[in-house]
Specification:
Layout (H helix, E strand, L loop, with lengths): L8 H10 L7 H13 L7 H17 L3 H14 L4 H13 L3 H14 L4 H13 L3 H13 L7 H17 L3 H13 L6 H14 L3 H14 L4 H13 L3 H14 L4 H13 L3 H20 L5 H13 L3 H11 L6 H17 L3 H14 L4 H13 L4 H14 L4 H18 L2 H17 L3 H13 L3 H16 L5 H38 L2
Length: about 525
Amino acid sequence: MLSGRYFTITFVFITLLSIGFQGCSSVTARQGIQSVSRVKSQPLSDKDMAHVYFCTGYAFMLDRDWENATINFEKAILLDRSSERIIRHLATCYFQLGKNEKSIDFIEKLVMLKPHDFSVHYTLATLYETVGKHQDAIAEYERARRCKTTKLDNVFLADALYRLANLYMQEGMMEKGAECYKNMFDLKLVSEPAKIYYEIGQRYFEKNDIKKALEYFLKVKEADPKLSFASFYLTLCYDALNDYENAVKESKAFLEKDTDNWVMHLALSEIYGRMKIESKRNEEIKKTQEILEKNVDAGSKNPKEYFMLCQIYRNQRKIGEAIAVIESMKLIPMDKETKRDTHFLLANLYYEDQKMNKVEDELQMTLKLDPDFHEASNFLGYLFVENNKNLDEAIQLINRALKAQPRNGAYIDSLGWAYYKKAQAEGRNDYLIIALQKLLEAVQLLEEPDIYEHIGDVHYSLGHWDEAVKVWEKAQTLYKNVRSNEVQVENITTKLEKVKRLISLEEMSSKVIANHLEVETITRP
């Protein structure tokens, strides 16, 4: 049975080298280095001279001196262009030197000489695959499988079919890939079919062909009922197909063998949520939380466990506990990207906890780890704007974020709001015009209540009170549609009441002035 690992291409070359090789013995090869001087008095034919260079090259190859071996084999091939063994050895040397394209050139010549040789097509296919020429690799694997093979070739044939199946599936040709696996079964090249079925199922699952994935995961379970991971994927498949009863059944079967698997408990909680069984959903979330707490307290090295426990606390509005979990995560080994994400998450958590100094520190650390992390650039820029500080730097940060995502409505809103704050700080109406343009552009891309509120604020500052009322009322309606926005609703209601009073007073003043002018006209002699 294939273990799932590919045979190394180096091993393929060694095998090729040994197949049908009729060359120099090691002694003859080493003597070949000196043979030129001995025969200077007698002219050699091209074939004989090619043999001398070949033996010299072979001696260098035995010493793993690939450069000098290549030089001599190249001299040999100039004198004997159709020599199969010289072409083979040149392909091997260029491969060992990391010159895969040159190696391919010589194997392609070998294919012309040996069109029905399984090992040659197989080697060329693996080389094409190595350099990313997947369509050429598929064509060569197909030619290889049509060649006659012996029992000695079976292990390579199995590998060829395995590689071919994976290439087809990577290219989205799922049925062709499945047919290759079936061919492995038919030729009795596979002793553990469950693992092959599992790989096919995974491929279909990755391509979101859930029904086909389900078909193969059921075959896994039939072939080897002891394999618990089949139940894991069957749970996901049934869930995706809205067959919740079977999803619950398979998840419980999995958890019987792996009771502390928090991923499955979490998946089961989501299934119960879709089934509207809140009591069982909460029970599974609690189990997930308990397992994660135990793992984290024991010093888990898995960042996903910290992130998930943090998310559970966050959903429960336990921001302090969420922060404590992520702060403790700083003590475990992490790659650079995970460190960056940790600091960015902490920035968000501290923002929710209204600890603004810590927000800035975490965002600065995020950008130190990844200066191109546009989410952090926008967040830090917006933070400066909200606190009326470093407005020029804020604009630079937001523009950096927009360079990465020029049509991100949230980022354009940040830029418009920055110009509004700059207009207030410097008393410049031209900045208010820029702010309005940016905010109107943002709301076309992202219809959010806070953007409408910002537009209303700019209109108000420009004296466009009627326009301010319209957009603030739109923002008020949108805020009311979202839970936990009581503060925003209250703030915008206060703004609306204020501007409506001003409009009313303005109208009253206009009427008083008009009446006064009318009286003056009547009483004037």
